[in-house]
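Reviewer 2 asked us to include a model.

Predict the structure of this chain.
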Amino acid sequence: MNRVPILSLLFCGALSAAEIREESDIKFAFYSAAWGGDTNDSIRMLAHNQTAEAIRLESITFLKEGEGADRVSLHLDVDVPAGGYAEEQMAYVDLLQGDECITRTLAENWKLAEISNYTLNPSVRNLIIEDTDSFRIYQCVEPVETTWVNIASGARHRQEEWVLYHFESRNN
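Predicted model (structure tokens):
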């Protein structure tokens, strides 16, 4: 695989403020037991602040682009220490509506494992995959707008970026 064009694309994308960024200083992931069955469980959000300053993660808005889908804004107001982590539990909100990839994947009996703004590596979830015929990871992509404030300076940041819907399937 030739890495030069890929690196060039990533570098050019990071320079353009009008484009959706590939990397964020604030990493986050959403989890819910409701995605595995018919429950009304809440959604848990974990955030990692990779900056040297404490921030307040104000909101994450899912910019639903599918037919008949409305944007979904999660108002968080979660303080995340510099280089640290924070967690927030919230009432269930439907983050799965309005995307053909998500609808098709769920219809094919995949299970949603998490939604995050970083790629899921099986080793991160302590999975050792010995039989690739019995386990698959599948992803759908959707744009979001993340808003946070530097607590010390009051500087406000807004960034459009991608989230990945990570689905798992175990074949029997």
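The first helix runs from residue 3 to 15. Residues 1-20 have pLDDT under 50 and may be disordered. We have added this to the supplementary material.
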